[in-house]
TrEMBL record:
Residues 73-145 form the Mannose-1-phosphate guanyltransferase C-terminal domain. This is Transferase hexapeptide (Six repeat-containing protein). Keywords: Acyltransferase, Transferase. The lineage of its organism: Bacteria, Bacillati, Bacillota, Clostridia, Lachnospirales. SUPFAM superfamilies: Trimeric LpxA-like enzymes (SSF51161). InterPro entries: GlmU-like, GMPPB_C, Trimer_LpxA-like_sf.
Length: 223
């Protein structure tokens, strides 16, 4: 899997996010991370008050969304139509939660874009990450977004490193990715469309589309 396989076009269906314009002109998804906050601020002010309400300091929530009274949402954030924010979810700002998404019990989000129909339903941490259409993170799976030595994150594909220039980079999940329970996606992980990650995995680098990640030495093509 080379760097050409981890482009925005390779990973995501841009028709499945309210943030499509943010990705235009950007070859790689990590280029979008520093732009999320300003994009939300600009887009939020343009949202229809027939469909959205301003529920706090730069927090726009669709009237059709369901938000538990115990959830905490800090701005800037946009919660799109028919999304479900469950008990004790913690959205720390710079977050776009797409249509029909589920943000579940004790899940924490920070500087993220969730495409439509994403599910992070149980005890997940998702930071500085982008999750594609209908991707799903199993219970307890998380994105690790800072290296232990605090150096800048690079994207490792096919033995080559591409520098992001960023200290905080989580994971980029293509459309329809399934991540097994209690897995850790290390900083700069990219998982191609339609791939599955076994439970209890520690994943780093780039995983090709249409693959099954069993362990670092065993990544097989789906049949």
């Amino acid at each position: 899997m080379g760097i050409s396989d981890v482009t925005v076009d390779s990973l995501f269906d841009l028709e499945q996010t309210i943030a499509a314009d943010l990705f235009k002109g950007q070859a790689y998804p990590w280029k979008v991370l520093p732009l999320i906050k300003d994009y939300i601020m600009a887009l939020g002010s343009q949202l229809s008050f027939d469909e959205y309400e301003l529920a706090g300091d730069n927090v726009w929530i669709a009237k059709s969304a369901t938000v538990a009274p115990t959830a905490t949402i800090q701005g800037p954030a946009i919660i799109c139509k028919d999304a479900e924010i469950r008990h004790c979810a913690f959205i720390r700002g710079n977050a776009i939660v797409g249509e029909h998404c589920v943000v579940g019990n004790s899940t924490e989000l920070k500087n993220v874009i969730l495409f439509n129909y994403v599910q992070v339903p149980h005890y997940n941490y998702v930071g500085d990450s982008i999750l594609g259409y209908r991707s799903h993170m199993g219970a307890g799976s998380i994105t690790s977004n800072v290296k232990s030595d605090k150096t800048l994150v690079s994207i490792k594909c096919d033995g080559k490193n591409t520098q992001t220039g960023l200290k905080k980079v989580g994971a980029f999940l293509g459309d329809y990715v399934e991540v097994g329970c209690n897995s850790v996606l290390n900083p700069g992980t990219v998982i191609g469309r339609n791939s599955n990650v076994y439970p209890l995995s520690s994943v780093r680098g780039c995983i090709p589309a249409n693959s099954i990640y069993k362990k670092a030495s065993e990544v097989v093509n789906k049949k």
